[in-house]
Amino acid sequence: MDLSHAQRADVLIEALPYIQKYNNKILVVKYGGNAMINDDLKEAVMGDLVLLSLVGVKVVLVHGGGPEITETLAALGKKSEFIDGLRVTDKETVEVVQMVLAGKINKNLVNLLQIKGAKAMGLSGIDGHMIEAEKLDDVHGYVGEIKNIDVTPILDCLDKGYIPVISTVGYDNDGNVYNINADTAAARIAGSLGAESLISMTDIDGILRDKNDPSTLISTVYASDAPQLMREGVISGGMIPKVNCCIEAIRRGVKRVFIIDGRIPHAILIETLTDAGIGTMFISGDKI
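The structure corresponding to this sequence follows.
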């Protein structure tokens, strides 16, 4: 759509109060889903993050990479197995996870952000002892449960004007490496940073009262109402752990958490810098 000069000015004026609200505040973006696979969407997401960074938002990017891990494992002749939505991770698999997440994907994202004009720094949860973990259980192998988050490396990057790009692998003091769920890590990192907002990019519109009807999108969910929505089946299946991560972030002090459809170009900018917004916003408290 071609905009007139006046319309372009209106867009910028509409964005102004949101830019002021987020100026010098921390915004954590959990990046995954189709927006990570589709090259055009990836370009749009990285452009959004660079723009936000340039107008004074302290952007932190936390990424997953499940499909690429599965693809790499298949190329090595190894079948992926999932239990309760988590990848069963033996010793060989966790080495592939570390290689793909902390290596290929992380550095490609850093490179793309820098090409678009940002300063970016790739980190993993091992760097600076950022994500300390322990084995979740014996069934999942080297899938980690987070014990502690040290945000010092993230804050150091932000203070020097970099966008930290974080791959979610963790460590323990015995030298083990763990595969950490990206939604869980993003929620804990956002809480530890005292982030203004956490945005979780998914492949759905948000929370729908009727999953087959996009017009039933629930734009705002109070943290205390989420359990009831789960009991009603409105939040079900794979959305339950994602929503639990949203609630965990709110509980840890994040002011607003958004689940947005990453398949929409520039979804991050629409959510953060416009009156309309998209997706579902989680906030603390009870519905009035």
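Residues 44 and 63 are 16 Å apart (CA to CA).
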